[in-house]
Each structure stands twice: as C-alpha cells, then as structure tokens.
C-alpha cells in the first residue's frame, strides 16, 4: 500500500472527524451552542455522536503515531516536537480563547478570568484534547523508547490496561487533562493496533465495515431519540466498545472522499479555531434575526469548517504565526546561492 493511498484513507477519516466535531459544537451540549432543546432532531444528532467523535480523532492519532513511532534514542527530539505541536498552541490559542470567553459579551459558558488563565493546567474548553493527547504521546513514547511495546502481545496488554483505567471513576482533579488522557488512551492504542493490522482488516471487513458503522449510527440515533440519558455517559463499557468498533469499521471500509480529504488536511486548524468561527456565525445570524435552526446549524457548520482553513492559509505563510498558532515546524530558509565569478573566455570577447 503506497503512502499516497494511506494518506487518502486517513485524511478522509480526519475530515469526517472534523465534520462530526464542528457539527457537535455548533449544535452544542444542553444550554450551549445554539441552545437547542431536547426533542429537536439536531439535539438527537449531537447526542448520538458522543461515542464516535473524539475517539475517532484519537484513533487517527494512534494510527499515525504507529507509522512514525520512536526509533533509536531520539526521545528528546520526539518530546520537543510534541511540545511545539501541542503545548505551544495550547498557550497561544487555548489560553487566549478562554480569556476571551471569560470577558467577552454574549457567550454561553460562564468562565472566570482566573480559571481562564489557568486553563493550561485545568482545562475548561475543547483544548483539553491538547493536554490529554500530549500526555498520551509522552506515555506511549516512553514505553516505545524503552522497548516495552515491541510485540503484539505487549501492545494488546497496553490496550487492556488502558481499558481498565477507562472504566474506573474519573479522578477528582483533572490536572493537565489527566481524565481526558485516561478517556482517550484506549482509542489511541486501538489506532496503533489498527495500523499494525490494516491490510488484514481491509481484506476481511471492507464490505462489512461500512455496513456495521451505518448500523451503529442508526442505533445511536434511535437510542438518543428515545432517551438521551442512555447515551451521554462516555466512560462506560458500551462507550468503549462502540467507539473502538466504530473506528475499526471506518478504517476497514477504506473510505475515500476528495472533500473530506481536503478538510482533513486542515484538521488541526479546524480543531483549534472552529469554535471561534461557529460562535461568530451564531452572533451575526442572530443580529440579522435568523431563528431557523437549520439555517443556524448550516451557517455555523460552514463557518466552523471554512473559517479555520482560511486562517491556516494565512498563518502558514509566516514562520511566526505558523509556529505559535498552528504548532508547525519553522521553515528553514534556503541559503543564498554562492556568487560565481564571471570568467571571460575567448568566445565571450
């Protein structure tokens, strides 16, 4: 399987994860987002995503990590790379966003300024994912670096360990997103297992995979419509099973979509900035008197997806903004070509 083919399938799943994430935050939890009440089809859609949305994002992270995992003694470079990619945007995007939310008018979430300034330690917004996945990368990277994950048996053992932690009650203090890390770890390891067995999965489940995912989605929609309280507990055996099976089913389907692949290429920017653009859309449409839920959701979804893409295009043009706000590696300037002295030859005279 070529690297291009791998990119197409994974970037498609990235794009799907972005779509699910932005749609959820546009609709919002109860009392948030568009403040859509129970009984609305959009509320049912938002609730039904809970077992798939962040597990899919994390599954993809584990899959990609398994391709480019630590080799040799380069843990320091690995650590520095993750700090640049995750922690720098946490301080430069996540904390300012939380402060803006604390002081800005018309926001749905009541956030104190002190809590906003300390959000790098105790998360209060969707940026908890940055802290959680950073902790996972460092934990798994250390195990890999020390040679503790060199066999399939050990990898499955790590999944079993992560599953046990997942099912335990959350810790009372969510310092540096530790509860988020415990929640996401099984899906990260499942992504590693999926990458190690991707060819077998596609051979055996290429047809069954998409059918299974559709069946799971319809079941979740039905349960969310009947009683949302049955579906909102993420850290449960059902949540773990449905999340892992859904991710494996999507991977085995070998799904390709040019639109989703394009979105997937901007997945990090979409994650970081989609809430800002979705909230702006809600504010602007509200000022114009738009009250139709469908128009509000469509406007928020479009802005939440396309706004970060445009922002990423601008930020990527400059090293300063691309490093601070996107966590990208600074582009190295090409050295100037040496000036070759002109030597006159007989033919040039």
Write up this protein.
- With 349 residues, the chain is mostly helical.
- It has one domain (3-348).
- Helices cover 68% and strands 0% of the residues.
- It has 15 helices and no strands.
- The protein has helices spanning 3-27, 41-48, 53-67, 75-103, 113-117, 128-145, 152-167, 178-196, 198-205, 208-226, 237-252, 258-264, 267-287, 293-315, 319-326.
- The longest helix is centred in the N-terminal third of the chain and has 29 residues, at 75-103.
- The chain starts with a helix and ends in a 23-residue tail after the last helix.
Task: Please sum up the structure shown.
The chain is mostly helical and about 350 residues long.
In quaternary terms, these chains amount to single chain
Number of helices: 15
Distance between the termini: 58 Å
Roughly what is the average pLDDT, rounded to an integer?
Answer: 88
Order of helices and strands: HHHHHHHHHHHHHHH
Anisotropy-based shape: globular
Report the biggest beta sheet as strand number plus sense, adding barrel if it closes: none
What is the number of domains? Answer: 1
What proportion strand? under 5%
Structural class: mainly alpha
Global Rg:
22 Å
Strands, count = 0
Low-confidence stretches: 1-6, 342-349
Q: What is the helix fraction of residues, given as a range?
A: 55-70%
Domain Acyltransferase: 9-312
Membrane topology: Multi-pass membrane protein
Subcellular location: Cell membrane
Transmembrane segments: 12-32, 44-65, 86-104, 124-143, 155-171, 177-195, 207-225, 237-253, 265-285, 305-326
């Amino acid at each position: 399987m070529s690297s291009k083919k791998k990119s197409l399938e994974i970037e498609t799943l990235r794009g799907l994860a972005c779509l699910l994430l932005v749609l959820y935050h546009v609709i919002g939890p109860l009392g948030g987002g568009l403040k859509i009440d129970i009984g609305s089809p959009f509320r049912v859609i938002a609730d039904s995503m809970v077992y798939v949305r962040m597990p899919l994002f994390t599954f993809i992270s584990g899959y990609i990590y398994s391709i480019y995992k630590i080799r040799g003694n380069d843990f320091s470079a690995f650590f520095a790379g993750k700090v640049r990619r995750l922690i720098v945007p946490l301080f430069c995007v996540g904390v300012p966003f939380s402060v803006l939310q604390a002081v800005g008018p018309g926001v749905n979430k009541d956030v104190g300024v002190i809590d906003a300034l300390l959000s790098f330690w105790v998360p209060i917004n969707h940026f908890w994912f940055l802290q959680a996945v950073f902790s996972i990368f460092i934990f798994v990277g250390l195990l890999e670096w020390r040679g503790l994950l060199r066999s399939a048996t050990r990898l499955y053992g790590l999944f079993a360990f992560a599953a046990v932690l997942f099912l335990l009650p959350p810790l009372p203090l969510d310092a540096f997103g530790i509860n988020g890390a415990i929640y996401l770890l099984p899906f990260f390891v499942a992504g590693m297992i999926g990458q190690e067995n991707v060819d077998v999965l596609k051979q055996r489940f290429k047809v069954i995979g998409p059918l299974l995912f559709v069946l799971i989605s319809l079941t979740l929609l039905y349960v969310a419509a009947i009683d949302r309280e049955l579906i909102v507990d993420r850290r449960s055996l059902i949540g773990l099973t449905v999340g892992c099976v859904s991710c494996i089913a999507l991977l085995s389907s070998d799904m390709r979509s040019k639109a989703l692949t394009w979105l997937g290429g901007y997945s990090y920017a979409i994650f970081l900035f989609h809430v800002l653009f979705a909230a702006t859309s809600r504010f602007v449409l509200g000022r114009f008197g738009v009250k139709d839920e469908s128009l509000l959701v469509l406007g928020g979804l479009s802005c939440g997806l396309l706004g970060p893409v445009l922002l990423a295009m601008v930020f990527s043009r400059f090293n300063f903004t691309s490093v601070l706000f996107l966590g990208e590696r600074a582009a190295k300037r090409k050295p100037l070509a040496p000036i070759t002295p002109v030597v006159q030859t007989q033919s040039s005279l």
